[in-house]
């Protein structure tokens, strides 16, 4: 009898199971709109030209070696990452109350932040502190905070299915009713999975309540630059909250905007009240990292660091990011136009009102099942699609498939 005999089989991760099913499908017109990764118009992964250039620079740099990085990560990567999030003129950076922790992707940044908050937020071992995540949200949010030890992970209103947009009234009401000092996970831009973001005026209303009620802000910033094509525009909410005096965390990912999916390059930016607080916070995060992965990997961080710290490479990278963002915006425009031309029932304005990699189509589970089984178009059960999976070659087929799903399946 094995000591592991009672271990149950865990269900597969939905998005990767979807991709596996797609690969096994032999249909000539199959389309994968599931996994969140950028694709070219030929439906191929894209290694950013600036990344290729920096990789060559790293290979030719004889001063580099494979010694351990510091526990908190490559210093020049951490500082450059925080600067990208907060801006060149950030008062918080000038006041020396901003620090970073290099992490294994955005997930690693979320986990280190969650673990720290569970241990030290408002006292020690805060397992009962409510953590609020949007309804719906990226599936890892719930699991990361639960696995960090939080016992009370709750949803807050976000998506209004009837109007296919933001449920601002529900969100503001949840902020008002949440216990003081609750933790709220906010998507900085390009909300996953809905693609629906608050406007700047709506962000101001959110910030006013959170400040008045002493709610803690934990931003997840996985798509800066990738959403609108502008790094500054996509970081507006983060920078506004910092300007309002919030202490906050920002989990940054460079998977999307650098195309470094398998390098797992992330950063946890910490904005503290003052330098003394920052020093003590980072000292505790160092202990958490030490028992988690001990020291982070260097390759991805070096690529990002060299790019962000060189004016010439930085400008080239912004151009690469805009190329990706513009293709997504083009696909949104074309999909909406084609659905309207087909006379597909319902409104499709939300396709272009949403932003970023994902779109919440509004298709129900039965319609999604029809899309997968009958049309071989693979998307999440929620109706979320990855706009990068659309190309000039398959968009007519996808639009026709959506039209058939909406008109034949209720």
The beta-strand count equals 13
Helix content: 40-55%
Outline, from the CA principal axes?
Answer: globular
Tell me the major beta sheet.
Answer: 7 strands, mixed
Q: Nearest-angstrom radius of gyration?
A: 22 Å
Beta content comes to 5-15%
What sequence of helices (H) and strands (E) makes up the elements?
Answer: HEHHHEHEHEEEHEHEHHEHEHHHHEHEEH
Q: Which strand order do you get reading across the main beta sheet?
A: 2-10-9-8-7-3-4
Describe the protein's architecture and organization.
The protein is of the alpha/beta class. Helix content is 46%, strand content 13%. The chain is built from 17 helices and 13 strands. The chain has helices at 14-24, 49-59, 75-86, 91-94, 105-120, 139-147, 168-177, 200-212, 231-234, 236-243, 255-258, 275-290, 299-308, 311-342, 350-353, 365-375, 395-408; strands at 31-32, 98-104, 131-135, 153-157, 159-160, 165-166, 183-187, 216-221, 248-253, 265-271, 358-360, 377-378, 384-386. The strands form four sheets. The chain has a seven-stranded mixed β-sheet, sandwiched between helices. The protein has a two-stranded parallel ribbon with strand order 1-12. A two-stranded antiparallel ribbon has the order 5-6. β5 (159-160) and β6 form a beta hairpin. The chain starts with 13 loop residues before the first helix and ends with a helix. The mean pLDDT is 95.
């Amino acid at each position: 009898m094995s000591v592991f005999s009672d271990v149950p089989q865990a269900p597969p991760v939905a998005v990767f199971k979807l991709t596996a099913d797609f690969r096994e499908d032999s249909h000539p017109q199959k389309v994968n709109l599931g996994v969140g990764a950028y694709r070219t118009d030929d439906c191929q992964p894209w290694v950013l030209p600036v990344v290729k250039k920096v990789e060559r620079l790293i290979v030719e740099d004889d001063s580099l070696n494979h010694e351990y990085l510091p526990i908190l990560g490559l210093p020049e990567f951490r500082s450059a990452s925080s600067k990208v999030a907060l801006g060149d003129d950030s008062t918080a950076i000038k006041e020396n109350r901003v620090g970073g922790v290099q992490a294994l992707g955005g997930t690693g940044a979320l986990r280190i932040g969650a673990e720290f908050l569970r241990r030290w937020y408002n006292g020690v071992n805060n397992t009962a502190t409510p953590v609020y995540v949007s309804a719906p949200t990226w599936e890892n949010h719930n699991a990361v905070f639960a696995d960090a030890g939080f016992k009370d992970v709750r949803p807050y209103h976000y998506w209004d299915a009837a109007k296919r947009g933001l449920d601002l009234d529900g969100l503001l009401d949840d902020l008002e009713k949440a216990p003081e000092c609750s933790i709220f996970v906010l998507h900085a831009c390009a909300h996953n999975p809905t693609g629906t973001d608050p406007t700047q005026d709506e962000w101001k209303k959110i910030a006013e309540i959170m400040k008045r009620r002493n709610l803690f802000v934990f931003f997840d910033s996985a798509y800066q630059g990738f959403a609108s094509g502008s790094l500054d525009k996509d970081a507006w909410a983060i920078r506004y909250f910092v300007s309002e005096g919030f202490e906050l965390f920002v989990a940054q990912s460079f998977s999307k905007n650098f195309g470094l999916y398998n390098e797992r390059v992330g950063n946890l930016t910490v904005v503290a009240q003052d330098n003394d607080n920052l020093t003590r916070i980072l000292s505790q995060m160092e202990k958490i990292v030490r028992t988690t992965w001990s020291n982070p990997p260097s390759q991805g961080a070096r690529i990002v660091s060299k790019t962000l710290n060189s004016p010439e490479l930085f400008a080239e990278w912004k151009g690469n990011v805009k190329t990706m963002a513009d293709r997504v915006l083009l696909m949104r425009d074309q999909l909406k136009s084609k659905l309207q031309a087909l006379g597909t029932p319902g409104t499709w304005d939300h396709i272009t009102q949403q932003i970023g990699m994902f779109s919440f189509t509004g298709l129900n589970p039965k319609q999604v099942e029809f899309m997968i089984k009958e049309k071989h178009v693979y998307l999440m059960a929620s109706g979320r699609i990855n706009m990068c999976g659309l190309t000039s070659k398959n968009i007519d087929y996808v639009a026709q498939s959506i039209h058939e799903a909406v008109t034949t399946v209720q």
